[in-house]
TrEMBL record:
Belongs to the amidase family. GatA subfamily. GO terms for molecular function: ATP binding; glutaminyl-tRNA synthase (glutamine-hydrolyzing) activity. Subunit of the heterotrimeric GatCAB amidotransferase (AdT) complex, composed of A (QRSL1), B (GATB) and C (GATC) subunits. GO terms for biological process: glutaminyl-tRNAGln biosynthesis via transamidation; mitochondrial translation. It is found in: Mitochondrion. It catalyses: L-glutamyl-tRNA(Gln) + L-glutamine + ATP + H2O = L-glutaminyl-tRNA(Gln) + L-glutamate + ADP + phosphate + H(+). This is Glutamyl-tRNA(Gln) amidotransferase subunit A, mitochondrial. The lineage of its organism: Eukaryota, Metazoa, Chordata, Craniata, Vertebrata.
Length: 473
């Protein structure tokens, strides 16, 4: 008997994902299994129901291996700020990285010589990258699926807002949150999307139309495509390595007969500030439910209700979450509401209109970098505070969330340090089939090399037989 009592005959598959091992980010509710959001506030909380996406995967026969680590309440871009500690990037232990990293002197601590996964869905990206599972769910509010996908060398898909149900995803920013899909290839992402997409009566923001799952073609002709290269994505801090990779990827499409043009998204430069205002404002609203009365942590403070609230939230939330709550409430104060929140909403509309104009001019797909650089060492990452890091790391990804557009990060090549670098494709609303078809064509061209984990390699060398990567760098 399956979940919800669906009987099936012995030997008959439940669905396309029957027997496929999956992992789920720990901000999706799972019935009977702890859901913590990597926070003391929800430590020990067990949800009475499954998130819609989790239930759909189980109904298709998928096998849940476990929940994955994240930044507390998904607020971060490194997966370093949760109560379970930071997530380590599997590529830190790959032969490719070790060969390019100079040996450490005995005085240096080798334990600290590992790189971050990106975030906030770092645990899910690491699980797919390290062969722990075939599919993992992440969430994507400003790039939290695509960013770790790029750093961990896996495919990270953020679908169109409203295509997949958010019911049971503990909210960060309701107007931007989207369940994300992490897989090792584009075809797998298309299969999972087919199982998850469609209307959910429990989520009023989902599409009303029925979604028809699709298969991606094997023979793909890109000659009729117009690929846009947004000049504003040549952002400050973009590494020369990624800039060269982006340029060569554009040439790849041009050489195959596609039309490649430079386009402008003029309001992109305001997007990270706009995102910060809207994100913190919605965070302040969403975090108000964690008051110690109904569920989650409750402080042992009996002096008054107000003191119990204050103690609960001080003990339950880390500095990052408390900081965002304070910022959001400041922007929502009566005297600030017009100048910050309303103005940010207007700028968000301008950013969305930039995409509408570009896609209306005949552009099919936008090609951009996913991240400014490859993954940085943990000790270097924590030198800067969470807010500074998030502002830097989300700069190339969060505009797609504000416009509600589908976007996918594809692993493209290894950097000079032997670490993965990804590029991002952004498509028209609800045109996932076209987006994934172009992504599959690109994936075939670049032949990204498989990770060679040293411990795993000793057990089964045959796993790592692969074609050489196209020399992009």
């Amino acid at each position: 008997m399956t979940e919800k009592g669906n009987f099936h005959r012995w030997g008959q598959p439940l669905g396309v994902l029957d027997g496929i091992p999956i992992a789920v980010k720990d901000n999706f509710n799972t019935a009977g299994i702890e859901t913590t959001c990597a926070s003391n506030m929800l430590k020990g909380y067990i949800s009475p129901y499954n998130a819609t996406v989790v239930q759909k995967l189980l109904d298709q026969g998928a096998v849940l291996l476990g929940k994955t680590n994240l930044d507390e309440f998904a607020m971060g871009s490194g997966s370093t700020d949760g109560i379970f500690g930071p997530v380590r990037n599997p590529w830190s232990y790959s032969r490719q990285y070790k060969e390019k990293t100079p040996p450490k002197s005995s005085s240096e601590n080798e334990e600290s010589d590992w790189v971050i996964t990106g975030g906030s869905s770092g645990g899910s990206a690491a699980a797919v990258s390290s062969f722990t599972c075939f599919v993992a769910l992440g969430s994507d509010t400003g790039g939290s699926t695509r960013n770790p996908a790029a750093h961990c060398g896996v495919v990270g898909l953020k679908p169109t807002y409203g295509l997949i149900s958010r019911h049971g995803l503990i909210p960060l920013v309701n107007s931007m949150d989207v369940p994300g899909i992490l897989t090792r290839c584009v075809d797998d992402a298309a299969v999972v999307l087919g199982s998850l997409a469609g209307h959910d009566p429990k989520d009023a923001t989902t599409i009303q139309d029925t979604f028809k799952p699709f298969e991606l073609p094997n023979l793909i002709d890109v000659r009729k495509l117009c690929i846009g290269i947004p000049k504003e994505y040549h952002a400050p801090g973009l590494s020369s390595e990624i800039l060269a990779l982006w340029s060569k990827a554009a040439d790849l499409f041009k050489d195959a007969g596609a039309k490649v043009i430079e386009v402008s998204l003029p309001h992109t430069r305001y997007s990270i500030v706009c995102y910060h205002v809207l994100c913190t404002a919605e965070v302040a609203s969403n975090m108000a439910r964690f008051d110690g009365l109904e569920y989650g942590h409750r402080a042992d403070m009996n002096k008054s209700t107000e003191s119990m609230y204050a103690a609960t939230r001080r003990e339950g939330f880390n500095d990052v979450v408390r900081g965002r709550i304070l910022s959001g409430n400041y922007f929502l104060l009566k005297q600030n509401y017009e100048n910050y929140f309303i103005k940010a909403q207007k700028v968000r509309r301008l950013i969305a209109n930039d995409f509408v104009k570009v896609f209306g001019s005949g552009v099919d797909i936008l090609l951009t970098p996913t991240t400014l650089s490859d993954a940085v060492p943990y000790m270097e990452f924590i030198k800067e505070d969470n807010r500074t890091r998030s502002a830097q790391d989300d700069i190339l990804t969060q505009a797609a969330n504000m416009a509600g557009l589908p976007a996918i990060s594809i692993p493209t090549a290894l950097s000079k340090r032997g670490l993965p670098v990804g590029l991002q494709f952004i498509g028209h609303s609800f045109q996932e089939k076209q987006l994934l078809t172009v992504a599959k064509w690109f994936e075939k061209q670049v032949k990204f090399p498989m990770i060679q984990l040293e411990e795993v390699k000793r057990h089964d060398c045959s796993v790592f037989q692969h074609q050489k990567s196209v020399s992009f760098l």
